[in-house]
Amino acid sequence: MSESIIDAILKLKQKCRIEEEIGSAHDLTPRQISCIFALRDGETLSASELSLCLGLSPSRGSRVIGGLHEKGYLDLAHHKDDKRYVMISLSGEGTECLKGIERQKSLCEARLLERLDADQAEEISRHIMTLVSVL
C-alpha cells in the first residue's frame, strides 16, 4: 500500500466540503450541524447527553445548544420529573432546517455518484461502511 489509510482519510476529509456547503447555506457551524443530526429522529436529550453524544465538554456543548436555540432551531423544556434538567429537541424551524440539510446531502451525493458507475459506487459504499464499522 503506497499511501496509508489515515493519509487517505485525511485527504478525503480535505476534499469533501459538505459541511462547509451546508454551513454556508444555513449559517451553521460543523458542530451545530452535528447537533441537528443527533436530534433528527425525534430525539429529546438532556444538555449533558447531547454534549456527550457530540463529544463535547458540557460548556462547549452549552454554547452549541445556545447558538442553535437563538436561531430558533431547538426547543428547550425542563424535565417533567427533575426541573434541574433541560431537555432539548428540534423545533419546527429546526426540522425544516434538517430537511434543507438532507436535500443538500442528497445533491452532494448525486454529484459524486454521477462520476462513478454502479459497480464502483457499490464497492466504494461497501468499503466505507466497513471502515466506519471498525472505527
Protein described:
- This protein is mainly alpha-helical and 135 residues long.
- The chain has one domain (5-134): Arc Repressor Mutant, subunit A (Orthogonal Bundle).
- It is 66% helix and 9% strand.
- It has 7 helices and 3 strands.
- Strands 1-3-2 form a 3-stranded antiparallel beta sheet.
- Strand 2 (74-78) and strand 3 (86-90) form a beta hairpin.
- Helix 2 (18-26) runs antiparallel to helix 6 (92-113) and helix 4 (47-54) packs across helix 5.
- The longest helix has 22 residues, at 92-113.
- The radius of gyration is 18 Å and the shape is elongated.
- The model has no long low-confidence stretch (mean pLDDT 90).
Short summary:
This protein is mainly alpha-helical and 135 residues long.
Estimate percent helicity.
55-70%
Q: Could you give the distance between the termini?
A: 19 Å
Radius of gyration: 18 Å
The overall number of domains is: 1
Shape: elongated
Mean pLDDT: 90
Sheet/helix structural class = mainly alpha
What is the CATH level 1 assignment?
Mainly Alpha
- The name of the CATH topology is Arc Repressor Mutant, subunit A
Strand residue content = 5-15%
What is the assigned CATH homologous superfamily?
Winged helix-like DNA-binding domain superfamily/Winged helix DNA-binding domain
Question: Could you state the oligomeric state of the chains shown?
Answer: single chain
CATH architecture: Orthogonal Bundle
Strand arrangement across the biggest beta sheet: 1-3-2
